[in-house]
Write a structure and sequence with these properties.
- The protein has 74 residues and is an all-alpha fold.
- It has a domain at 42-74.
- It contains 2 helices and no strands.
- The longest helix has 24 residues, at 49-72.
- It is rod-shaped.
- The chain crosses the membrane at residues 20-37, 49-69.
- This is DUF3311 domain-containing protein.
- Keywords: Membrane, Transmembrane, Transmembrane helix.
């Protein structure tokens, strides 16, 4: 049985308050802005703008997540 007078270990404070984390809002907000991709032209290799812009949103998400990861790791 543990001694009640023994101090308990205090968990370390979280340090995830980096300003780099704000970049993660870009891949969240970008696909919600429907006027950006609510049209048929311009076409890229025959694909309407909706499809290739959706794919580019995935690439933006990967790039921003990679940047935030690299800038906030210890």
């Amino acid at each position: 049985m543990a001694d009640p007078d023994t101090p308990k270990a205090v968990p370390a404070a979280r340090s995830d308050r980096s300003p780099w984390n704000w970049l993660l809002l870009i891949p969240i907000v970008l696909p919600v802005l429907t006027p950006l991709f609510n049209h048929d032209s311009p076409r890229l290799w025959g694909f309407p703008a909706f499809y290739w812009l959706q794919f580019s949103f995935i690439l933006v998400g990967v790039v921003t997540t990679t940047i935030v990861f690299r800038m906030t790791r210890k």
